[in-house]
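Structure tokens please, single chain.
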Amino acid sequence: MKNKGLNVTEIAKRLDIGKGEVELILSLYGAGDNV
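Here you go.
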């Protein structure tokens, strides 16, 4: 999954968190952008 050019797996590795959390964060940011 790519969101705004960011690779979820790469973000997860850098932040040392789960991929699910990254997807949740990105989806929340995406929802905020669409408001």
